[in-house]
Every structure is written in C-alpha cells, then in structure tokens.
Write a structure and sequence with these properties.
Largest sheet: 5 strands, antiparallel
Structural class: alpha+beta
Shape: globular
Low-confidence stretches: 1-13, 154-160
Radius of gyration: 15 Å
Order of helices and strands: HEHEEEEEEEE
Mean pLDDT: 77
C-alpha cells in the first residue's frame, strides 16, 4: 500500500498505516495545554525487519513516523530520539515507548505544582505540549523514540488545537 509522500518504494503493511492513522487522529485531538496518552489498537511494527528488539528497528520506526506524520500533518516533524527528555519540552513532543516501561512526571505551565504521574508501556504514545516539564525514570531495557512537531503558524497567538487541520491518510 502507498501512504502519502512518505512512500519510498517499500511495501508498508496495513497495520503500520493503521498505526500512523491512529497517531494522526490522536494528535488532531491534542491541545497546547495538556499532555495526552494514546493506547493504540495497532502495533507500531517496523515494516522492513523482523528484528524488533534492536535500537536499529527504533531508528527505522522513528524515520518512518517522522516522514509519515510530516506528510499527514503538513508540519515539520524532527526525529529527536537520544535527546534528553528531562526538563522543559522545547517543542510539541511525541514519545513512543518501543520496549519496556518508563515512568513520567509531567507538569504543565498552567499547573506546575500538580504534575501528572504515569507509566508508559510498550507501544503507548505520549504527547507533551511545548513547555511541559518532565522527569523520566526508565526501567532496565526500556527504549523509546521521540519526535518534535512544529505547530502550524496561524498568525493569531497560541493555537489550542495545534494539529486540527491534519489530513487523514488516503
């Protein structure tokens, strides 16, 4: 199947496309104010390898998601895996837990004294609005990827639904 301009000649299974569509719909519901958690129905299978236990598969998944989400959202999406996630989020951030478990404490600018505390399990997706302050504790063997998303410019201050104009994949 072909999915948007992210198509690079590799056959992408329907389950991968369904996963990306879930993430796009999830982002359309996110706001600038609060973090959000997605428990996806589809697994983010890496489409070009059978070894899903290696960091190399994480890099392939990260690259695929960055291209696919940029195409669907119409905004720049940058791979930021490997960058520290403790501290303030400099941009809208999407975190995908690829293995194991991490524990997150997330404080927003609106409620800095009342952080959300939540676990993130394999395949779950966490959205962090720009400016969220995070503390992350990772279990042994856990892995994640992170992507930075640029908010569309609307010319009218802070947009509370930054990805509302995302297109559904064909």
């Amino acid at each position: 199947m072909v999915w948007g301009s992210a198509y690079d000649g590799t056959v992408v299974p329907e389950s991968q496309e369904a996963y990306v569509e879930e993430v796009v719909l999830f982002l359309r519901a996110c706001t600038d104010r609060s973090p959000a958690l997605l428990w996806p129905e589809h697994e983010p299978a890496v489409y070009d390898t059978t070894d899903r236990t290696s960091p190399a598969s994480d890099r392939r998944l990260s690259a695929y998601l960055a291209r696919s989400l940029a195409s669907a959202l119409g905004v720049p999406v940058t791979e930021t895996s490997g960058a520290p996630l403790d501290g303030p989020a400099p941009a809208h951030t999407l975190v995908v837990q690829t293995a194991g478990r991490t524990h997150w404490s997330v404080a927003t600018a609106e409620e800095p004294e009342r952080p959300l505390v939540l676990p993130l399990l394999t395949s779950e997706v966490l959205y962090l609005p720009r400016g969220s302050r995070t503390t992350v504790t990772a279990a042994a063997g856990s892995r994640l990827i992170s992507l930075s998303l640029t908010t569309p410019a609307h010319g009218r201050g802070l947009d509370r639904e930054p990805f509302r104009t995302a297109r559904r994949p064909h």
